[in-house]
Write a structure and sequence with these properties.
The structure holds two protein chains of two kinds. The radius of gyration of chain A is 22 Å and the shape is globular. In chain A, strands 1-2 form a two-stranded antiparallel ribbon. By secondary structure, chain A is mainly alpha-helical. Chain B is mainly α. Helix content of chain B is 73%, strand content 2%. Chain B has 20 helices and two strands. The longest helix of chain B is centred in the C-terminal third of the chain and has 33 residues. The two termini of chain B are 32 Å apart. Classes of the chains: A mainly alpha, B mainly alpha. Chains A and B meet through helix 18, helix 19 and helix 21 of A and helix 5, helix 6 and helix 7 of B.
Chain lengths: 494, 501
């Protein structure tokens, strides 16, 4: 492989480069321009460039860059697009909210863009050190973003995120070291061959114990990123303290990036039957714990952001069902599990951002994140009530919404690979979740509120909310295209 | 299978849904009711057409098929857009069209200020979803519509209901979702065993396929969903709450057609796809059916709220459906299962009429508490007559449709389960007891001063009552209109079951 950077390689990471340029541009503009509201406009319109560049890469070919550290393929680009959409909507719904930050608006948008570029890089990384760097690139700006509201709870959240993030990175790194020690390579591609060879020749170090430990540690590291139990403790506090748009960004983009890497590692290197089995059992257990815990605790929440934190823990559990359902295990249908993850994540992107559009607006208007401040929302804004209701329906998994289709698809993959118990666990958990999601609907539509002042929507906000709702319903009725795309993406990494 | 499209069924499902949503766009509130009735009438005509088409051109298999296999990438997930009616579903489609229109009339007294647009929107969406359940021949679509019906019902109960409406609405949703959660696992299990969602082909495929879950488990998983809906003891506790607190229109739909989805599912899935398991578990159905009948009837006698009384009587009457199905393991299979289907259809019209008359009476008296009512027959003779006819049909008086259904069920089940059937027959006595006692206490006895100002039914209220009375007595005298069609549709199921016997 060539050790020089070629133009072709630069083109392959053009989306990330353009993100960084955009971030720099926003900071510079912030220094010279008095009218800060233009920053939101620049950041959101500027994002169209990386989006266009990413779509340009979506040609179905897989190319390596930087000595094999990056692999730009359909799968990676799919996740880049998810991240970019998430960033775009985060910026759109930050429009009013960012006024809270007065002089720091430029930094706010720039940090979002830099964090997103890290996530995009993560989606294409196929080498442990690159993965680690990309991960830190995405996490550090987030720690700053979380503390952006200068109040006590926000600072506390930021520190908490920072410390726990560092801790999980350390665990991850230790896992990577163990795997490296066992295999002698940091390239995911090579791992699978080495593991297969040594399994066949039964030349396992410590009977394979070291490798297994490595797998477990890597899983733990990423379980933190996707806020799966038992590494979920940070989520409620951080979600509550962070600026609302950042909470949305954390719950979707950060999670998607985590899943992208896990899928790559699992698929390319641990798809071996024996290791795959260990991996699958581990993930399935975490998944079951995660959804049960998330749903049961969410019921008692009175703060909407905390409720969504627990909801996102539960949702992470559902998504992990697809991870546990590795197709290589029980001769199941081709890649239904991993493709289900991609489908689910896309649906979750739409659903969660629809909900957070409403949460952001309500929190600006009422200065409160308590669930009771949603009472009588119907009288205050019909559009917001509609957006929130459809989002809740999708989160429960009722038709006609993308949540319904994605859930069925992902539980179906579990049934297919012999994880019937996990599928039953999943559907029963959906029943529990119906209780607290419907409670929000009930509060919005039926409860009375003496405050009946109308909530005004800005163009950006209604654009973000309505396009999400539109996506939820359309993909809930015609999910075929996205399922095909997800399958294509998964096929590109095996 | 060739893709084809006759459009009728697709229109029958989506017309009320789109019509309902379009009500939101009508600016003047005075026109909402008129438009709702217009939509309901068109839907009723569509449903009648579907019924008559099956009646005149009925063949063994489904007719009026809408099939499109490009909806999903079928190589990945073999879901088709597949609608059709056969002898089993056509009567239920008619019932849905009829009761849908009647539930719109039942909301005649709803004040214009009381979120009237949404009310009719949810009613119409509900109706479309239920037609979808009865006409879907793809298991996946069946499940979609099955779940879709929840949301309208939740809003209907929790916004326009009375009493502990939020509690009841939530209880209804949680119970139903819990049932359908099990059903979903069953559906997926069936799919991954056979690679097909096609409900017409599934019985054949399941017989030969290598199942990933044992057939008896699949049978139980799917039937739990239907059992919650029917409802079967001990999963029935949502029903009295939901019925009591629901507005009249929702009660009519709930008792009239939503419960029948459970029974329909048992025919379409449990009996048709798992004949061996039905045969094996028939004794449980017979036992639970008997408990439903007797327990339901005993509880009903104790009720003092008119709506709660009718709700518990539904539990009792749905027990007959189970008893009829349990005949599957004996010589009376043909009579028993046809009787069960008949019972579902007639119960739909009878309970619809009961809830309707009680709803109209409640609109006037503002109380449903039986000890507070008395002598209503003198003030509101028309409504009282409606209630009496429905009550008599409910207790199975000859020349009403209730009689035909119950007698066929007893005939079918007696050959297999003589003891259970004998015990159940006492349910009829209990029914007579609670119905006549209820009529006596609320409609007759001395006339009360405070009810002197009550007016009798208006034209808009008379119309649905008359229609339902005609259908009850009409089927009572000419039961073959419905029963022949059911026999035709049930033929494959019955012959499968007979082969096992």
């Amino acid at each position: 492989m060539n050790s020089f950077i070629t133009t072709d390689e630069l083109l392959l990471i053009a989306p990330e480069i353009s993100m960084v340029i955009l971030a720099t541009l926003v900071i510079i503009l912030d220094l010279v321009i008095k009218n800060k509201s233009i920053l939101n406009f620049v950041a959101s319109f500027g994002l169209l460039v990386p989006i266009a560049l990413s779509f340009n890469l979506l040609d179905g070919t897989s190319q390596f860059a930087f000595a094999g550290a990056l692999r730009v393929d359909y799968f990676g680009v799919f996740f880049k697009i998810i991240t970019l959409f998430a960033t775009l909507i985060t910026i759109l719904i930050s429009e009013k909210y960012s006024k809270k930050f007065d002089d720091y608006q430029g930094e706010y948008y720039a940090l979002i863009l830099i964090s997103a570029s890290g996530m995009m890089l993560l989606a294409s990384s196929v080498e442990f050190i690159t993965i680690y760097i990309a991960l830190e690139l995405s996490a550090l700006p987030l720690a700053a973003l979380i503390t952006f509201i200068r109040i006590r709870s926000s600072a506390e959240s930021g520190i908490k995120f920072m410390v726990l993030s560092a801790l999980s990175s350390a665990i991850l790194l230790y896992g990577m070291v163990l795997v490296y020690g066992f295999t002698g390579t940091t390239y995911i591609e090579d791992l699978s061959q080495i593991i297969n060879r040594s399994l066949i020749n039964s030349e396992l170090t410590f009977g394979g114990g070291a490798l297994l430990l490595g797998v477990i540690l890597i899983t733990c590291g990423f379980a933190f990123k996707i806020s799966s139990a038992p590494f979920h403790m940070w989520a409620p506090d951080v979600y509550e303290g962070a600026p609302t748009p950042i909470t949305a960004f954390l719950s979707v983009a950060s999670k998607a990036a985590g899943f992208a890497v896990i899928l790559r590692i699992v698929y390319s290197s641990f798809s071996n039957e024996q290791i795959g089995m260990d991996w699958s059992v581990l993930i399935a257990t975490l998944s079951a714990i995660s959804m049960t815990l998330g749903n049961l605790i969410a019921i008692q929440q009175t703060n909407i952001k905390r409720l969504f934190a627990y909801s996102t823990i539960a949702q992470a559990g559902y998504i992990m069902v697809g991870l546990a359902a590795l197709s290589s295990l029980d001769g199941g249908q081709d890649n239904a599990g991993p493709a289900g993850i991609l489908f689910y994540l896309f649906g979750y992107l739409l659903t969660n951002f629809a909900a957070f559009t409403v949460i952001t607006l309500v929190s600006i208007n009422t200065n409160s994140d308590s669930i009771s401040s949603y009472s009588g929302l119907l009288k205050r804004s019909r559009l917001l009530t509609l957006i929130m209701t459809i989002s809740m329906i999708s989160l429960i998994g009722l038709p006609p919404s993308v949540g319904f289709m994605a859930k069925i698809y992902i539980f179906g993959s579990a049934m297919d690979t012999g994880l019937q118990w996990l599928a039953i666990f999943g559907v029963l958990n959906s029943v529990v979740s119906a209780f607290y999601y419907l409670k929000i609907v009930k509060i919005m539509l039926i409860d009375e509120n003496e405050n009946s002042e109308k909530i005004q929507l800005t163009t950006n906000m209604s654009l973000a909310g309505l396009s999400c709702v539109f996506g939820i319903v359309i993909l809930g009725i015609f999910p075929g295209s996205i399922i095909e795309v997800a399958h294509r993406a998964v096929e590109s990494i095996i | 299978m060739v893709d084809q499209f006759n459009w009728i069924l697709t229109i029958a499902i989506f017309f009320p849904i789109i019509g309902g949503i379009s009500l939101l766009l009508i600016p003047q509130k005075e026109y909402i009711k008129i438009f709702a009735i217009l939509f309901g009438t068109i839907e009723f005509i569509l449903c009648s057409y579907i019924f008559l088409f099956q009646f005149t051109n009925g063949i063994g298999g489904p007719v009026l098929v809408d099939l499109n296999s490009t909806w999903f990438p079928t190589n990945i997930f073999n879901v088709q857009y597949y609608l059709g009616v056969d002898g089993i579903s056509a009567p239920f489609v008619l019932l849905t069209g009829l009761l849908g229109l009647i539930s719109i009339f039942a909301s005649w007294n709803l004040s214009n200020d009381h979120r009237i647009r949404e009310h009719f929107m949810w009613l119409l969406i509900l109706q479309g979803a239920v037609v979808g359940v009865f006409t879907s021949l793809d298991f996946f679509m069946f499940f979609i519509f099955w779940e879709l019906e929840l949301i309208p019902m939740y809003f209907l109960i929790s916004i326009w209901g009375s009493g502990r409406k939020h509690y009841s609405a939530m209880k209804f949703v949680i119970f139903t979702i819990l049932g359908s959660a099990f059903m979903l696992v069953g559906v997926l299990g069936i799919y991954f065993s056979t690679d097909s969602f096609n409900m017409i082909e599934l019985p054949e495929k399941l017989a030969t396929a290598k199942l990933i879950i044992p057939a008896s488990v699949l049978f139980l998983l799917t039937i739990i969903g239907f059992a919650v809906k029917l409802p079967v003891f001990p999963l029935h506790t949502w029903l009295p709450d939901a019925h009591t607190d629901a507005p009249t229109a929702a009660s009519v739909m709930l008792a009239g057609v939503l419960l029948k989805m459970g029974g329909y599912g048992m025919l379409r899935v449990s009996a048709s796809m798992f004949p061996n398991e039905l045969h094996q578990f028939a004794w449980i159905l017979a036992l639970l059916g008997t408990i439903n009948i007797i327990y339901g009837a005993v509880i009903t006698i104790r009720q003092t709220d008119l709506k709660r009384l009718i709700a518990y009587s539904s539990v009792s009457h749905m027990g007959f459906v189970l008893l009829g199905l349990s005949a599957a393991s004996g010589a009376g299979v043909s009579i028993g299962i046809t009787g069960a289907s008949m019972q579902m259809f007639t119960h739909g019209t009878i309970t619809g009429l009961l809830f309707l008359s009680i709803g109209f009476i409640y609109d006037r008296t503002h109380t449903r508490y039986i000890p507070d009512l008395s002598g209503l027959a003198q003030n509101t003779p028309f409504l009282a007559t409606g209630l009496i006819i429905a009550g008599l049909a409910s207790l199975g008086l000859p020349a009403t449709s209730g009689f035909i259904a119950e007698i066929t069920i007893f005939l079918g089940a007696f050959q297999t389960w003589p003891i259970f059937t004998t015990i159940s027959a006492f349910g009829v006595v209990l029914t007579a007891g609670y119905v006549l006692w209820m009529i006596q206490r609320s409609l007759f006895q001395h006339k009360l001063e405070k009810f002197n100002t009550l007016t009798d039914a208006s034209i808009g209220e008379m119309f649905p009552i008359i229609v339902l009375v005609i259908s009850i007595i009409g089927i009572g005298i000419f039961p073959s209109i419905i029963s022949d069609m059911f026999s035709l549709g049930l033929q494959p199921i019955i012959s499968n079951l007979q082969a096992i016997n």
